[in-house]
Design a protein that fits this description.
seven-stranded mixed β-sheet; 2 domains; alpha/beta; Nitrilase/N-carbamoyl-D-aminoacid amidohydrolase; nine-stranded mixed β-sheet
């Protein structure tokens, strides 16, 4: 297919740009309605859909690479947006954000500012033109009209979607449009927690997501090609679309990696209380459970043949959770957590979250942990853990994220599968003393875990923070989720590992540094004390650090648990900073910084 403007528009909006194309055509004269391009003659009604097509055109054409960010006129080739043009575009976007008419039920002229319609007309007038820009800057067609129009619509639609997702206390006439889109696309996952179609109840009354939140806040765009989600951080390095937008992120289609965004669960807080909540520290209890791991916990999979034939030199393994394999061990764990929470509350007023490593619990124990946590700490906001089973009792490697609103009944649990498999080589078998997996013919052991459809979720915390979580290899492998991480720019990334010591010189430190640099996230990795201690026991030396912190300032912190059962109480403080787009648009965001930590032994 030729990459023309028209083909790009039709591929992203296969049903047209309007939610009711037939009704739209009825209001057109016969000649216009008979135009084969009639379903695309009018701009999409939502700013997020306009952002999707404008960004998609910019991406396919590599338009941002031709953008000169300087304000003053220069002889250098490329597109420029003058200070006057920037002001006009931002004002247009702000006026679009203030429109109070329902954009789906309203008329085109009521649903968006006139410049948006005019710029769309310029793009449609270039329907048969190539979307690929000329390389020869002396060519008179080097700067086609559609290029500046697409860039302008990108800026306008991004501005129109002001940051309602992250700051409910400022939903007023300045961001009505964003609030409307929020209700349209995500309402079932914010306030309507009793919707049986989206939720099912667990034993403790928690509402477990059966489906996922929408993969995009667009209405008409083909999500197999492109999706749009709210963003948090603007990277301070690089020159790309993610450096150009402040409020929205253009992401790949959902066919390879399904992304989603979950707004914070409703809390009945006054604007003053909400502002106070945003200024509070975030106190997290890091529990590096299990505290001991036997070598026999790593066992050949029942589906793995011990006899290797042909060229195959690998087998599959599973992790047997011997640390929670009877009722006494499970009850002991819950009792230990209760003691840890009581001890932690002697150090700080509130505990906001609990984090456990990869494959630490199963779903049943995780639910009981959440119930206990919220009972002891009514202020609880989140609980993250790696699980070996999901809500359907299926075995695998899962990440569980539980969030709470104002009461224990205002809660949701989201669970997804790990995106990558763990590969054990001979060096790791030696490092951890896993003699149960050693034989003469097997060089590699692959984790026996079903992956299925890959997904990654972003979550709002206190309205001014977005966090996400990764499982082990996802921190290192860039082929599935790192592009999305850099586009959305979460303030916090939690990596749950089954790994050895968390120190700067090992692989978690290297990949955490990369994400701290771009997009500027604060990254916390956590592993089990059991595997750290196995490594020390086998080698006779080594660090006992079970967690590692890295942020954009370059600060690195390790957290030791030298002996016994226990936890790390980590306190983070919010720091307001200014990010800027490549066109110098400012954005105030929260950067989480290390404040203090204490070791709690049981």
């Amino acid at each position: 297919m030729n990459k023309t403007i028209g083909n790009i528009i039709k591929s992203l909006f296969p049903e047209g740009t309007q939610p009711d194309t037939a009704a739209m055509l009825e209001h057109l004269d016969a000649d216009t309605a008979g135009n084969p391009n009639a379903p695309w003659l009018f701009p999409p009604l939502l700013p997020s859909d306009v952002f999707a097509i404008a960004g998609y055109i910019c991406k396919v054409s590599s338009l941002v690479g031709h953008l000169d960010p300087h304000i003053e006129p220069r002889d250098n080739p490329g597109f420029q947006v003058s200070s006057d043009e920037r002001r006009i575009l931002v004002d247009c976007g702000a006026s679009w954000a203030r429109l109070s008419a329902d954009p789906v039920k309203g008329h085109i002229e009521e649903a968006m500012p006139e410049p948006v319609v005019r710029l769309w007309d310029e793009i449609i007038a270039s329907w048969n033109e190539s979307v690929l820009l000329k390389r020869d800057t002396s060519d008179e067609k080097y700067a086609p009209r559609w290029a500046k129009a697409a860039l302008s619509l990108f800026i306008i639609s991004d501005t129109a979607f002001s940051r309602a997702y992250f700051d409910r206390t400022t939903i007023d006439d300045s961001n009505v449009m964003a609030a409307w889109v929020s209700a349209l696309r995500l309402g079932a996952f914010t306030e309507s927690l009793a919707e049986e179609k989206a939720m099912s109840s667990s034993d403790d009354g928690a509402l477990v997501l059966v489906g996922d939140p929408p993969s995009s806040i667009t209405m008409m765009a083909n999500t197999a090609l492109a999706t749009v989600l709210p963003k948090s951080r603007i990277p301070s390095v690089g020159v790309g679309l993610r450096n150009l937008s402040r409020n929205l992120a253009l992401l790949p289609g959902s066919s390879e990696l399904r992304l989603s965004y979950s707004p914070q669960i409703h809390r009945e807080l006054s604007s003053g209380a909400e502002c106070e909540a945003r200024g509070k520290p975030l106190n997290l209890l890091l529990i590096p459970f299990p505290f001991e791991i036997d070598a026999l916990a790593f066992e050949p999979s029942s589906r793995s043949e011990r006899k290797i034939t042909g060229e195959r030199d690998w087998q599959s393994f599973r992790v047997k959770q011997h640390w929670i394999d009877d009722a006494n061990k499970r009850q002991r764990f819950l009792a230990q957590v209760s003691v840890m929470l009581d001890e932690a509350k002697r150090e700080v007023d509130e505990i906001h979250g609990i984090i456990l490593p990869e494959l630490s619990l199963d779903y049943e124990l995780y639910v009981k942990l959440g119930e206990q946590f919220k009972e002891i700490c009514p202020e609880a906001e989140l609980c993250l853990a790696g699980l070996a089973t999901n809500m359907n009792a299926e075995h695998g490697n899962f990440l569980a994220i539980r969030e709470w609103g104002e009461t224990s009944n205002h809660t949701r649990i989201q669970i997804r599968s790990k995106q990558q498999r763990w590969k054990l080589d001979l060096n790791q078998l030696e490092m951890y003393g896993l003699t149960s997996l050693v034989d003469a013919t097997t060089k590699f052991w692959w984790e026996d875990a079903h992956i299925g459809n890959r997904s990654l979720s972003f979550h709002s915390l206190r309205d001014d923070t977005v966090f996400t979580s990764l499982i082990c290899e996802e921190l290192a492998r860039s082929d599935s989720c790192h592009d999305a991480l850099r586009a959305v720019g979460p303030n916090l990334i939690f990596a749950l590992l089954m790994d050895s010591a968390q120190i700067p010189g090992r692989w978690p430190g290297s990949y955490a540094t990369a994400l701290a640099d771009d997009p500027g996230s604060s990254v916390l990795s956590l592993t089990s004390a059991g595997l750290v201690r196995r490594s020390i026991k086998i080698r006779g030396t080594g660090s006992s650090s079970v967690a590692l912190w890295k942020d954009e300032t370059g600060l690195t912190r390790t957290f030791e648990l030298p002996k016994g059962d226990g936890a790390i109480l980590l306190s983070l403080r919010p720091q307001k900073i200014i990010n800027r787009t490549i066109l110098d648009t400012p954005s105030q965001v929260t950067s989480w910084r290390y404040f203090a930590h204490r070791t709690l032994l049981v």
